[in-house]
Specification:
Elements: H1 3-11, E1 24-28, E2 40-44, H2 45-52, H3 65-68, H4 74-87, H5 92-99, H6 104-111, E3 139-141, E4 145-146, E5 153-154, E6 159-160, E7 164-165, E8 172-177, E9 180-185, E10 189-191
Antiparallel strand pairs: 1-2, 3-6, 3-10, 4-5, 7-8, 8-9
Helix pairs in contact: 4-5, 4-6
């Protein structure tokens, strides 16, 4: 069986959020989703559209989270937490958020996209030129960097693809150089 069939079995062939049976598809839960059964949900086009585009979010549509937030699957709970966080100014979502418990690693996954954090409080990663860095971006080192704990030196001009951001410190990103995952300080990179 494929992933779609597995998710259909798990959900009963309905959207795992609102219960709709129309236009269902697989939604991989960001940031850099592992995909597969544990990193994906089966959702309708309405839910996916509103998840991906906050400007189209209809608070009343998401009242369905009152039921779906209790799913036994972490991917469903992560998206429920993000949507409730996005909508908490409405009042009722805050009550549901107060009831929703996520294991620490699941909560870290839920917070990874910055959903629910005020714009003024969000950590913004910038390269040496001030360009905003995002998960998955490619950067180039602008200086030779000695890698702590090893004899390796990451040379100037080295491209680092598919970076990931440190969600606690705006000065740090992670990337793979010469097959080794390293932490890089943002002031030594330039976005490609």
């Amino acid at each position: 069986m494929g992933l779609l069939e597995d998710l259909q079995d798990r959900s009963g062939k309905v959207c795992e959020f609102c219960g709709s049976a129309d236009t269902l598809s697989i939604y991989e839960v960001p940031p850099v989703s592992t995909g597969g059964f544990d990193g994906s949900v089966l959702a309708c086009s309405t839910c996916i559209g509103q998840i991906e585009n906050p400007d189209t979010t209809d608070a009343n549509h998401w009242r369905c989270l009152n039921d779906s937030m209790w799913s036994e699957h972490d991917a469903v709970k992560v998206v429920a937490w993000r949507m409730l966080s996005r909508l908490k100014s409405e009042g009722w979502p805050q009550d549901l958020l107060d009831m929703l418990y996520l294991e620490p690693e699941t909560l870290e996954w839920a917070k990874a996209t910055g959903e629910g954090v005020l714009e003024a409080d969000k950590i913004v990663h910038r390269d040496a030129n001030g360009a905003i860095l995002e998960n998955g971006d490619s950067v180039v080192l602008i200086k030779d960097l000695k890698v702590k704990g090893s004899s390796m030196v990451a040379k100037q001009g080295t491209a680092v693809r598919r970076i990931s951001l440190d969600h606690e410190n705006a000065e740090y990103i992670e990337g793979r150089v010469d097959g080794q995952q390293i932490v890089i300080i943002t002031k030594y990179v330039k976005k490609v």
